[in-house]
User: Fold these one by one.
Assistant:
Number 1:
Amino acid sequence: MSLRWRIALWYAALLVVALSAISGTIAWRLQSILYDEAKYSTNATMRNIVQSAQQSSPFSLEDPDAGTLEFLFNSNNLANWSSPTSYVQVDSAGGYPLAKTANLGSARIPPNTTLDGKHPDAFRRITIDGAPFLVEDRLISEDANSAVIHVAQPLDLIYRVFAQATQTIVVVLIAGAIAVTLLSFAIATQAITPINELSDAMRRFRFDRLDTRLRPSGRSDEIGRLADSFNDLLARLEEAFARERRFISDASHELKTPLTSMNANAQLLLRWGENDPAVRRESLETIARESASLAEMVNGMLTLAKADRGDAIPKEPVALAQLASEVVRAAASRAAEKGLHLSFEHAATPTVLGDPALLRQLVGNLVDNAIKFSERGEVTVRVGALPTLAWLEVTDSGPGIPSEELAHIFDRFYRADKARSRDVPGTGLGLAIVRSIARVHGGEVAVAAGAAGGACFRVTLPLLDALTEPS
Ligand code: ADP
């Protein structure tokens, strides 16, 4: 059974149970109120009769011997209490009817055998000629004689009222149940349609159609938020897949260039290598250069993959200033070859939590770029600390980064045209690796113009103390 029907039927069942309980209680209360009312008026008649009978004996001037019982045994005395809702009959002690109101006709109220001196009064429900009656019986004793007064009141009106009320309640209940079932089915349909659309859209979802989106629901409720979340998820998936596709196509393109060159040179070697030493040397040099570039690129891709894994990287406390000074020392000869002045300064000795090999690569890439792109002047590496952050700056006196390239230099495989045309070696992965490593350590990298007109790359990383101290 569909969820819609289940919701609708559950609602209807709950409504029927709740309404039945309420209307059952009301009907029961109504009946007992009407019944109490009948009892009250019967009892009032009974009290009147008894009172009149008792008062009759001392004041009866016509018949000085007449007592209470004599008054009761005369049907004429009872006529006062005869009405369409009041029937009176007086029986002898043996249960024989001695007097009764005319409205009883030939009918007779049966005797009540349960009365005695201890229980002289009782109410009971009986049927007389098929009609329901409420009867009050009262045992009256006088001078060793006794009589029983019966006051009866028809109950058919009460029963009719009750039957009609019950009938109305049942009709309203059935109509209400049907209405609620249909209404809750309609509401459930309205609520569930977006869920169905959602599941249809999920079923239709294909990895080659990541641009699929749910129709904007325009709703701000849970369903609307679910649809929006699903659309967000799709957008992020699409972005991630596009990034992966771009990476694969860039990587294949970048790997193809050195491979093609290596292949061409291998062909040259095969054809003329044996006879022409100049060709042999040139080809071997090219193959060596291209294979080194390939190895560098593959290493870069492996580092990126490692940095992308995020939490899986084992981290330990790293003294950033010491690590940076080691990297500077290792690069000193390369800087000297180009006549550059490479220096290291530190205003603090901050400790960060990280992977030393990755952090060394981060500093190394920045220093390598600074040396690579600067023709003269100096490259300075500085380390310092702020209250919660460690910072590292690499400033050079190269050409700097043109503003139109700022948005791209951290992209994977991005190389400025200038870098390519000037034949500066590189893979276009260096800065992407720097950014990935910085981010996986909870930090960031930014670039600005250096004071000397070159570029100034600044990396910030959270201090170990800031990570461990409760904030
Ligand atoms: P690669 O250095 O292999 O070209 P990177 O990702 O390290 O790749 O750098 C991307 C681009 O950013 C470079 O091609 C270059 O145009 C620019 N760039 C990086 N560092 C510097 C720098 N210190 N000075 C000027 N330009 C730079």
Note: The chain has a mean pLDDT of 87.
Number 2:
Amino acid sequence: MTGTAYIQQIQQMLLALGADAGLSVPALQQKYLGANGAFTVLAKQIAELDPNDRKAAGRPLNELKNALAAAIAAAGSAESANDWVDLSLPGKKPAVGHIHPISQAMAEITRIFTSIGFTRVRYPEVDWDWYVFESLNMPPDHPARDEWETFFVDRAPDSKKGQMVLTTHTSNGQVREMERLGEPPIRMINIARCYRRQQDVTHTQMFHQFEGLVVDTGITIQHLKGTLDYFAEQFYGPGTKSRIRPFHFQFTEPSFEVDFSCHLCNGTGCKFCKSGWHEVGGCGMVHPNVLRAGGIDPDVYTGFAFGWGVERTYTLKEGLAIDDIRLLYSGDLQFLEQF
Ligand code: PHE
């Protein structure tokens, strides 16, 4: 065979190959590169050529063969990858984080109170004795202070404001807010970390409270009760009621404990609430001494205040009986991912 005839055979094979482009990968492999494939046959025929033509014929044949083998290999791997797409398999769920349940509750509490004109404020969580106790009608050595198991900061006391403590309740925001505004009206919602020296399955040393304070002319217990009812319905759902029972706090007069009707049984009594009610926190009409401490004239203005724990407020809503409340702050994803 002459070199020209040989090149013509290569060209014919290429034309055939173009027409065969739609064949499957194994079929192409067999027809062109297999033991009796077109390339194999042509490669063998090189031996029949004039030795001077062999190089000129062999090189293009080899290059074409390598290009075809590479194309077939690429198509083959794409095809075999496709073989594994099983559309009936469930998809892979991307890991999505979410806001910590207590942060979610704080956002919801903020939304509810700001929607009726309260302003969310932040005050120090390490604060002077004056704001945490004394200005709230609890002079040094007053026995009422014992209720708040206080952490004291190891530093020299201020001559006027006393020792520095970790805030035991958000009530430290009351006089601070009066000072900030100078003059009523005041409608504050203060949500913050609080600290008490107790730790067991129902208490963490760090927890959160939210505190409401309203001071204006003509503020009465009715405004307090209406605000509590509004919160109860908004947070726990329509039909939830609030109930106030006489109690004692140094910084409110009169003082009450606050209960909400159980939203799981509509207040009829169930395994979760037992009596139909859940005790949540404290409230009352701001004591005249507290108004005075904040520079507000109690003969002109009256006010109410309330405050209690975010953790309990939240777990009640979810109907959660968490065995150990400390799990909320454990950082344990298995626990947190449930919410
Ligand atoms: N600070 C009180 C507590 O921690 C709750 C409270 C707030 C009571 C405001 C009355 C008014 O128990």
Note: Residues 169, 171, 211, 249, 252, 281-284, 305-307 surround phenylalanine (CB under 6 Å).
